[in-house]
Design a protein that fits this description.
By secondary structure, the chain is an all-alpha fold. It has helices spanning 10-19, 23-36, 41-48, 52-65, 86-95, 108-119, 126-135, 153-162.
Length: 190
Amino acid sequence: MAVVAEHLSVAELEERYRASKDVTSSRHFQAILLLAKGHSTSQAAQVTSFGQRWIEQLLERYNAIGPTALGDLRKDNGARARILKPELLERLRVRLGEPPPDGGRWTSGKVARWMADELGLEKLAPQRGWEALKAIGWSIQKPRPHNPKAASQAEQEAFKKKSPRLSPKKRRPIRASPSKPSPPTNTGLD
C-alpha cells in the first residue's frame, strides 16, 4: 500500500480533483486521491490510464513538495518562446498569402522549412510548422480526393446533354384501407 503524505485530507484532495480546471491537474489529483483512499498504484494506474511507474513518480513528487507538484508544470516554467515568436508568426501570416516555393499547398513541413530558413537553422520538425499554423489560426485543409476513373469535364458535359430530362411525377396519395372494428373487450365487470 502506498503511503501518501498528509499535505491535504482525502476530502480536500477530492475537492481539488473536482475543481481542477485542466485535465492534467484533475487526473493527477485523482491518482493521489485514489492512493490516499487505500488503492494500490496498479489500481490507480488502471483507473487513470497512467502507467504504474508514472503513478509512483506522481506520489514521490506529491510527498516531497505537496499539491503544487501536481498538474502540468511546463506551462509556468518561465521560459520564453524560442521558435514561435510573435514577429516570426506575423511574417509567416504574410508569407502564407503567397503559394509555397514548390507550388501546391502549404503544409506543416513546408512551413517548418520556411521557418528554419528565416531563423537560420538547418531544419525544424514539421510539428513546429503545425504549431505555427495553429498559432496563427489556420485549420486543417485537405482537398477532396480525386477519383482516378472520373470523367473529364468535356465528358461530363456530353453526358449531361445526352441524359434524358425526367419530368417530376405527381405523387399519388396512398389510400388507407378502411379500419375494422375490434371485438368488444371483456373488462370482467359484467
